[in-house]
Every structure is written in C-alpha cells, then in structure tokens.
Amino acid sequence: MLLLCAPMTMFAQKFAKVNTQTIMQAMPEVAKANGDMQALQKQKENELKAMQDELQRKVDEYQKAQSTMNATAKKAKEDELNQLNQKIQQAYQDGQNELQKKSAELLAPIQEKVRNAIDAVGKAGNYTYIFEDGVAIYAGPMVEDVTAKVQAKLK
Q: What order of strands is seen across the sheet that includes strand 143-145?
C-alpha cells in the first residue's frame, strides 16, 4: 500500500517558474528608480568633470610658470597638484560607492514587493516550488509559468 501511495505524493506537488526580470522591467517604480539613478550619476559625472577641469587648469598654469619658479615653489605646486589628483580619485571612488548604495536603497523595496507577490501567488496556487526562469536545467510540461499571475498581483 505504501508503495502505491508514494508515486501519488510526487504528482501532488506543483512547480512553477517566474521571470522576475520581465516583472521588474514592467514596473513603473523601476523606471522611476532608473531615472533617479541616471540623474545622480549625471550629477556625479559633472562634479568629477569640474574637478578634472580645475586640475587641468592648474597643471597648465604650473607648466607656464615652471621655468620662473624656484625649487621650493615648484615642490609646493607639485604637491598641490598631487593632492588634487588624489582628491579626484577619492571623489570617483566615493561617487561609485554612493551610486551602489543608492541603487540598493531604491531597488530593495521594489524587490520586496515582487517577492511578496510571488509568495502570494505561490500560496494561492498551492505551489511546492516557484523557480526563477532560466535557473532550472530542465522544465517539464508540468511546470507552470506564473509570471503573468505575479504581475497581476502587483496591479
């Protein structure tokens, strides 16, 4: 009797797949987050460009006045230029870190919203597992694609 029931429990399991990439691309919150990120990236690029322009201006001034400077003045100006160059490099690193942090901050609530919708579809459909589309090596005919159901749950 036990051997007859064992195969039945395997058929009782329901599997589904979902494409979170498709879902997120269709969400207006993602478009807004992308716009916010592009604006911040443009701001950081402008700040960096202004610093690089200032460095180039000072390098040009130094090269013009170099022949008339004494050794102490040359050394002081070279140190100033090196410090400004290091400041630019640090600003670039800080900007990259800020962009990554902001991206995570903007996407976290969106990802949580999608995750909650997937959970709701999973519970409502009584699924055993819902896999990310493209991760499974094989998806047989018994696997249902619930991407549309999750998108509907988000509306």
A: 129-132, 15-18, 143-145
3-state secondary structure of 135: coil
**pLDDT single digits (tens) 52-108:** 999 999 999 999 998 898 999 999 999 999 999 999 999 999 999 999 999 999 999
Contact 20, 46 (CB under 8 A): no
Digit-coded pLDDT (tens) for 23-32: 999 999 999 9
Could you tell me which of 41, 23, 32, 37 has the C-alpha nearest to residue 111?
23
What's this model's pTM, rounded to 2 decimal places? 0.72
Say if residues 88 and 51 touch (Cβ distance below 8 Å): yes
Closest to 121 in 3D by CA, of 150, 147, 152: 150
Handedness of CA 53, 55, 58, 60 (dihedral sign): negative
Token representation of residue 73? 């003045």
Which residues sit opposite 17 in a β-bridge?
Answer: 131, 145
The count of other CB atoms within 10 Å of the CB of residue 10 is: 7
Q: Which helix (H) or strand (E) holds 18?
A: strand 15-18
